[in-house]
Design brief:
666 residues; alpha/beta; Rossmann fold; six-stranded antiparallel β-sheet; 18 helices; 57% helix; elongated
Length: 666
Amino acid sequence: MQIQKIKATNFKTYLSLDLDLQVEDECPIILIGGLNGGGKTTLFEAIYGALYGLNIKNKKNFEELLNNGAFGKTEPKIELELVFTGQVLHQTQKYILRRTYILNKAEKPVESVYLNMNGSVFTYGTATPAAQRAMSEQQVNKIIKANLPQELSQYFLFDAMQSSELLKDNVFAQIIRDNFQNVLGFNKYLQLKKSAEKLLQERSKQRLKAQQEIEEYNKLCETKKNLEKELGDNEANQDVLYKYLTSMKATYDKAKQGAEDQEHIRLQVQQLESTIKDTEKKAAEYVENVKDFINTIELNVFLPRLSSSMSPEIEAIMRSKEEMKKAMDQRYSAEEIEDITNKVITYLKDFALIASDVNPQNVASHIMATQQDIVAEDNYAFLDDIDLEALKTLKKLNAVNGFIQLDGQRRSLDDAITELPNLRIQRDSLKGTLTQGSGNIIKEYEEKKRELERLKKDVERINEEIKKLDRDIHGYDVQIQQEPDVKYDTLVKLVPFFEDVANTLLANKKALIEEQIREQLDKMLLSYKGHIGRVELSDKLDNFSIRIYHTAGNEISLNQLNAASKQIFIQVLLKVLRNLGDYNPPVMIDTVMGVIDEEGRDVLMEEYFPELAEQTILLCTTSEIRKESDYQKLEPFISKTYTLIRNVEEQNTTVTEGYFGIPLYK
């Protein structure tokens, strides 16, 4: 993925921004300078917001993001546009992604999204029908995720000042674990292992000799199954509550302020009821279509399919019967044969062409026997005319398979039906507000908020109970039967096999990551430069840990590294993960020096930034990238330089080419 251009209209300090960020192959760096408060972080936020959207909660929040210099001068609209390229199936795709935010008539912020992928356009907005919006939004999110998932973005678009925070609370361990799963596809093998374990449980039940053990084993498995269902139901309920709380937040806030609009609430109720009825109607139509499909499946699917499969055999039968019919049509009756035979024999005798003792009856009998051989050769003599007509009819049947249309109808209904419980809850809450006042919505909202917290706590309890049950289930001593049980023996081998496959893949990738981190730290961690002996990652992703060792053999404690060394460490780690991961995103760093000391500065300039990524965007002040020294080291690797200039009077930021007055010579 490479960013080509960022546009921002009326966004915070930018009244109108149109910035070219394309880089040359040998010069991957874009250097953007600006004083503190000049708009560097806002530029960072504009790129992030264009990719993943702005979280604008209300009118006040919208106005806080709107450029101050735009009030009364331009349309109150925030627009972010990002032009970027990415690889999909080894083909370069160009994307134009635009997000627009305005206040609607009710003065609520609404969003519209436009994505052009090599000419294929996807659009949706707040007013888009739910089903169409869900489909378009899913396509847009899928495209963005294919280039850079939001959950990984913070590790490639980040503030260097905060990078050392990744060393706290096992955050970076989770990132390593996630990246490993992306690179090696661990989820696939873990799921196969889990499936094998489940089948093994089922097979083990059959092999338990004692009935008491069987009953206890079944009980444990059933309890675990119920707990897993409870966990699934819990997560589904949480999802419903999340959607409800998100949807009703604005109404709740107004109710708390005593500013609810009864007419607006009635309109919301009408809209919700209309959406619910429309979904229910489509669901009912789908059920009827399924019934019709089932009732006619033999005629429209099975018989045409049978006809298609049997077509060569039916053709062979028809040809054989046609040939037999022609042969039968040429047969003579016994009387005709005897009459003709007598005449021919008499003629031949009169002219002495045959012996006088030839018996005409014997000749006639021979001809009759020859005709009987024709009938004996009919391989399909058991088929009568009615059977043949049935075969001809079967051959003419054409398939009308409505399953594809039905499946498409089902897919479009899935999201709408999933949303129904939340829509009904919203409708009922709003109805209660109309009859009982704002207290009802406040009460319901806060009750559901408390219920959500209770469900979250229940998840921890359920997971602990499932772990305990797993230990109890695997603690059973399964009695091996005397007779061979191939399925059980195979399952016993499969569980560790899938685990071994995952561990082997982990070991292979682990060694590569360890060596690359060691090489980078050996060059960049100045306090131990040239003396990083080895790096060790734990063998399994659970309870993940990373350790570095001195060439003398002792471990170097990460906690004892100073702030600058921690920043170097985490940036090295992120660089290695980027190189080995599934994604190829640009790297954008704000406050590039973070807490780096003087000694570490040269290392970043010479060893890190030039080879970090195919596109690296650096946001800095002159105290971070100094004009008289640091800039000279970076210049050979720079494609473009810009300086952000803050106009206090006009309350906006403009962009000039060059780095604080230094033009880029290429």
